[in-house]
């Protein structure tokens, strides 16, 4: 009964909050902005256009987004730093590693996660298959960096095995949760660092991103881009050197992009209302329906058990045809990628399958 009530509640919220006019199966590229979030952006733009004080942006709304993200990912609010992009957060972490340090990554992982380590030029970045990542941790490994869910094909990393292996050798862990938080239950407190883009499954816009830093790992980082907002008392830190940085992870904050965070605060609140477990059940049920239909059509997706992302080898060229027919997917690594989220329905899945059937 509770499961049915959750599904009904999710369906009701979807009708109220989303206005997409396409068969939108491309959340892994960018999420659909809820009505409440779009309204918050319009309000801020209108106030800025009119020259009203509230058009400057509201730090209280930014703080609400931080607190909401913390609750969704199981960490204390003090462990969350705010920024604008995953690559910027990872660059901060890369800058803190000593020359010659080994960073262990999964082959084919997203560039924003791995490239900041590469461009250092003096780090040993080693790539191994995702499935053997935990087995490849060794005494020389300083940091293991991996996406919780692979962008290209939806494969889910064995994070429990990775944590266990890293603890044996004393390696720190960095998890990119950009394709997890928002549909997959995820506990950021289990890792030294996590990074999350806010414009995909969290249904915000570009310009909002989240870094979590464990209390133990915080002192390993230097706040190289700290400005006045990173001060213990930001409004007393606006001129001259910042005398005292925040003692929390807020010391790693970037100045907020207010339009993005006004949207993010509303979108994150939506997830707290409906619950990640309900979204997870909904998304994976749609993915299972799609997998069954693809099997009937003779298509074999990349194996990604339990994922909300389905990637079909050899069909990437169909992405443009699908787009012309109002079905939004993505072409990644030569594959056709479909991703399912809370605003999708069984009718969306069936529409995709009907087009693929010709």
Structure description:
This protein is of the alpha/beta class. The chain has two domains: 2-33 and 275-356, Alpha-Beta Complex (Aspartate Aminotransferase, domain 1); 53-273, Aspartate Aminotransferase, domain 2. 37% of the residues lie in helices and 15% in strands. The strands form three sheets. A seven-stranded mixed beta sheet has the order 2-8-7-6-5-3-4, with helices on both faces. Strand 5 (141-147), helix 6 and strand 6 (172-176) form a beta-alpha-beta unit. Helix 3 (59-73) packs parallel to helix 7 (258-274). The longest helix is centred in the last third of the chain and has 22 residues, at 276-297. The chain starts with a helix and ends with a helix.
**How many separate helices?**
10
Separation of the first and last Cα atoms:
39 Å
Per CATH, the architecture of the largest domain is 3-Layer(aba) Sandwich
Q: Output the radius of gyration.
A: 21 Å
The CATH H-level superfamily of the largest domain is Type I PLP-dependent aspartate aminotransferase-like (Major domain)
The major pleated sheet works out as: 7 strands, mixed
Kindly state the mean pLDDT as a whole number?
96
Run of helices and strands = HEHHEHEHEEHEEEHHEHEEEH
Structural class given helices, strands, pairing? Answer: alpha/beta
Q: What is the 3D shape?
A: globular
Instruction: Trace the largest sheet across and list its strands.
Output: 2-8-7-6-5-3-4
Question: What is the CATH topology assignment of the largest domain?
Answer: Aspartate Aminotransferase, domain 2
**Content of β-strand:** 5-15%
Query: What is the number of strand segments?
Result: 12
User: What low-confidence regions span 5 or more consecutive residues with pLDDT below 50?
Assistant: none
Helix content: 25-40%
Number of domains: 2
CATH class of the largest domain: Alpha Beta
């Amino acid at each position: 009964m509770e499961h049915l009530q959750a599904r009904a509640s999710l369906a009701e919220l979807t009708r109220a909050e989303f206005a997409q006019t396409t068969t939108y199966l491309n959340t892994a590229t960018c999420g659909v902005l809820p009505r409440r979030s779009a309204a918050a952006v319009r309000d801020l733009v209108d106030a800025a256009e009119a020259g009203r004080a509230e058009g400057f942006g509201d730090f209280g709304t930014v703080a609400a987004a931080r607190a909401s993200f913390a609750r969704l990912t199981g960490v204390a609010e003090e462990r969350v730093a705010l920024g604008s992009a995953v690559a910027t957060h990872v660059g901060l972490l890369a800058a803190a590693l000593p020359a010659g340090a080994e960073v262990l990554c999964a082959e084919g992982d997203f560039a924003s996660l791995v490239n900041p380590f590469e461009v250092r030029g003096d780090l040993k970045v080693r790539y191994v298959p995702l499935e053997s990542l935990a087995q490849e941790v060794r005494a020389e490994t300083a940091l293991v960096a991996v996406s919780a869910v692979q962008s290209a094909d939806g494969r889910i990393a064995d994070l429990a095995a990775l944590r266990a292996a890293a603890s044996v050798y004393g390696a720190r862990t960095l998890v990119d949760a950009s394709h997890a938080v928002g549909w997959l239950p995820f506990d950021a407190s289990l890792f030294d660092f996590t990074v999350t883009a806010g414009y995909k499954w969290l249904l915000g816009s570009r310009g909002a991103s989240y870094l979590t830093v464990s209390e133990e790992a915080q002192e390993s980082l230097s706040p190289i881009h700290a400005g006045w907002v990173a001060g213990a008392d930001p409004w007393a830190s606006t001129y001259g050197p910042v005398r005292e940085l925040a003692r929390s992870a807020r010391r790693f904050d970037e100045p907020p992009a207010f339009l993005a965070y006004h949207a993010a605060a509303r979108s994150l609140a939506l997830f707290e209302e409906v619950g990640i477990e309900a979204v997870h059940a909904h998304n994976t049920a749609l993915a299972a329906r799609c997998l069954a239909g693809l099997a009937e059509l003779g298509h074999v997706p990349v194996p990604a058990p339990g994922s909300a992302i389905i990637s079909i080898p050899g069909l990437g060229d169909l992405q443009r045809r699908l787009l012309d027919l109002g079905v939004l997917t993505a072409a990644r690594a030569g594959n056709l990628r479909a991703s399912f989220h809370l605003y999708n329905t069984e009718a969306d899945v069936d529409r995709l399958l009907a087009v693929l059937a010709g």
